[in-house]
Specification:
Blueprint: E1 7-11, H1 17-26, E2 30-35, H2 39-48, E3 57-58, H3 61-68, E4 72-75, H4 82-91, E5 95-99, H5 106-119, E6 123-126, H6 133-143, E7 150-158, H7 163-167, H8 181-184, H9 187-196, E8 201-209, E9 221-228, E10 233-239, E11 248-255, E12 258-263, E13 269-275, H10 282-288, H11 301-314, H12 322-341, E14 345-346, H13 360-367
Parallel strand pairs: 1-2, 1-4, 2-3, 4-5, 5-6, 7-10
Antiparallel strand pairs: 7-11, 8-9, 8-14, 9-10, 11-12, 12-13
Helix pairs in contact: 1-11, 4-5, 5-12, 9-12
Length: 368
């Protein structure tokens, strides 16, 4: 049992880091250090969150791990650096929250899982939308079998990302450090769809393309059909091409005895709620499970952090485990592989990496 606050450190002080700092503060963690290659990023967050002016700031996370010995660290760097940093943290005995995606290859995800088990370290994949009020209510209906037989579900991510977004951070949209719309913007809802429909995917067929963003390497559109082991089907439509701004992120679940639609900016409201058992009032469910976050990141980081603290304290798996993070990653990589090779892809994947698709759209343009 822990009696003292968790010693917490943040690695990477970019776009998503404010949500992590706010969640750490809200949960009473002892923030012992921040780390970033750009000193100004650290100073900005220290001022914004009224952290101690003498809070240790590091440009080398290994030095930070050695000197500060945090109980828990959050990795919020470029996606391509997640795995190497995670493995170093685990070797140092540090528990982890890893921003999505947890890695960019199956091999790296497996290495994180294996080493964390060996070292007895807890690793949480930061898929915070699982903690949305709306999502929790949908999950409860799944677990109580209110849908009956699951038939199919659909995840739609209809967002916009413009040139300025990519210009602010050159790693975005690259195969080595990011991937495209599916890996970056859409992976949260892809995670929810897989989770809700039974996790076990048998086959994927997909198309991806780069339609409006010639200055990135990866896709800005992905459309996929998924077949699950339990006989259900899934549809994914993900894009960053919507004019002129983000439109919606929706999740549909259809069963023989129920229909649900989660909507809003990031599946934070319930738009449809109909079940044959009539156990609850649909309008009341919609009212009680409606959130209006200021941005697409939602409110899920705070409960995710609370769960991680309890997982460490109680020596149990986090609600969103490293294995969950691998499953979301695997499904995106399977979509990439199917689209690149023009064929259905069977799961599980033995190994696959975003780098397997480097130069794909350039080659296709030349061939075309």
């Amino acid at each position: 049992m822990m009696s003292n606050p968790l010693r917490y450190a943040l690695i990477g002080c970019g776009r998503i880091s404010p949500n992590h700092i706010a969640a750490a503060k809200e949960n009473g963690f002892d923030i012992v250090a921040v780390c970033d290659l750009v000193p100004e990023n650290m100073k900005d967050k220290i001022l914004k969150f009224d952290l101690p002016r003498d809070l240790p700031q590091y440009t080398d996370y290994r030095e930070m791990l050695e000197k500060e010995k945090p109980d828990l660290a959050a990795i919020c760097t470029e996606s391509g650096k997640h795995a190497a940093i995670a493995l170093d943290c685990i070797r140092a005995g540090c528990n982890l929250i890893i921003e999505k995606p947890m890695a960019l290859s199956i091999r790296d995800a497996d290495a994180i899982i294996a080493l964390s088990r060996e070292k007895g370290v807890k690793v949480c994949a930061c898929h915070q939308n699982r903690f949305n009020k709306s999502v929790q209510k949908i999950r409860e209906a799944i677990e109580k079998n209110r849908f009956g037989r699951l038939l199919h579900g659909a995840a739609h991510i209809r967002w916009n990302r413009d040139w300025e977004y990519y210009a602010r951070a050159r790693w975005r949209g690259t195969w080595a450090q990011d991937g495209g719309a599916l890996m970056n913007q859409c992976i949260h809802n892809i995670d929810l769809l897989r989770w809700m429909l039974g996790d076990e995917v048998t086959e994927v067929f997909a198309y991806t393309d780069r339609l409006l963003h010639p200055y990135i390497e990866a896709e800005d559109l992905g459309i996929a059909l998924i077949r699950f082991k339990n006989g259900a089907y899934g549809l994914i439509e993900g894009t960053t091409n919507i004019y002129p701004k983000n439109l919606e992120e929706t999740l549909y679940i259809f069963g023989e005895k129920g229909t649900v639609k989660g909507g809003g900016q990031s599946v934070n409201v319930i738009d449809e709620w109909v079940f044959s058992d009539a156990l609850d009032d649909p309008e009341q469910v919609k009212r009680e499970h409606h959130e209006n976050p200021p941005n697409v990141y939602g409110f899920g980081h705070i409960p995710l952090y609370a769960d991680m603290a309890m997982a460490i304290r109680d020596d149990r798996e986090p609600y969103v485990s490293a294995e969950d993070g691998k499953r979301a990653l695997e499904l995106v990589l399977a979509i990439y592989l199917s689209a690149a090779e023009g064929r259905p892809v069977r799961l599980p994947l033995a190994d696959c990496s975003t780098m397997d698709f480097a130069g794909r759209f350039e080659r296709e343009n030349l061939d075309g």
